Amino acid sequence: MSEEILTYLPLLGVLFSSMGMSFVFKDYIADILANFVVKKTKDIKIGSRIKITAAGITTKGDVMHMGLLRTTLMEVGDGERLPSVRTGRLIKVPNFMLINNPVMVYGDTIIDEVVSYIPRPYPDSLLLMESMKDAIVSHGHGLIDVGLYQKDDRLVIHGVFEVKTSEMADERSKILRDFLIKSRQITAGTVPLTQESKPPQPRPEQKREEERVAIPLPNAEVMDD
After folding, report:
1. Positions of CATH 2.30.30.520 in the chain
2. Global model pTM greater than 0.70
């Protein structure tokens, strides 16, 4: 890509020297030339998912539009927070950032993983591995590998699969839930115990009333009013 930029440097020099442009206008020219370079190389195109790292800040999104000065991304969550989910926010990226910073371009499919920790008592290892394979395949993903190993007092079941980049948003949790059901770790109707599902706690006044209840004891003196 750097060779492509060098091709346009003479043109850039002529424009700068002949028109005496301000610093801000030079940035616009750089964005225009970057637009030509990006379209010529065809590494980034509409529909591509990309991740840009600039000045320690990561920007991830799907390319929605490539303008003369700016490329519009639909932001996609990254890392542990909203992983691979479109946030609904649009990001306008100067085109020059696409050729002046490290850019990760996602393909049509991506390799992902799902991990589950199984406490003692351990179920049958064959059941665990077959359940993970079935959970991955039943969702239409390409099975790559399933591994099983021990860590401290837990078994770790590790599934690696291929998923379409546009569909990877919540596939891990779906596969994990199916695996836990198939391996009999949970039942289909299991609901985690949350604040909403906890049994009602007694009110303070109710608790005080309960504390006043006297339990008859042998040899206790009976006091008449």
Report:
1. 2-105
2. no
